[in-house]
Here is the input.
Amino acid sequence: MKISTLTRWIVMLLFLSWPFPQAVASTISGKVNAKGLRSAANILIYLNKAPRPEMDISSAKFSMDQQNLTFIPHVLPIPVGATVLFPNNDKVDHNVFSLSRTKKFNLGSYKPGQSQNVVFDKPGIVELRCDVHAEMLAYIMVMKTPYFAVTDAQGRFTIPDTRYLEAHGITGITDLPAGEYTLKNRHAKLKTGKQKVTVPANGTAEVELNLMRGRPSVLYK
Ligand SMILES: [Cu+2]
Here is the structure.
């Protein structure tokens, strides 16, 4: 009886002194200053040459909406292989098409309440247009890895953008292996820059990107 009580105490002491795993994940948190642009929103930020973790996209749900003669969102990043729905939630017909090398398609004219879908099987940029409304323009960024984000209205971003991924049915991408990475950006009116960032084993790497107006380079060669 005595030994068993002692054993219980030892086990309890061991348990109490055990270093609990920290709940902090390795992430990048950043802010973009876009000189010469009205807003630092809708800028794609991504890791160049990032690791490619196992990613289950079988439950992924992405959508490029059409409302009030506008594509929503303006920039939609997706992992390669994902399907995107194109619901017409407008009051008029639209004819969504792309002439981009990454994915050429033409959905034809379709009515309010109808939807179509397209699978994006190659990484790169897809520029979306509407045959009926010349002012309609949006981008689908087909990404090689889950380490991307689009800046918010204040130019802020987090990589990985777990909240964005989970909202679109992709779970399990919560952090980044520690190491040295290079951040790149893509926006139609900004020069593509590169910035080195060191991600710690447990914690957030804070970065500030100062981007200039200019011609962007291609997303992937
Ligand atoms: Cu249209």
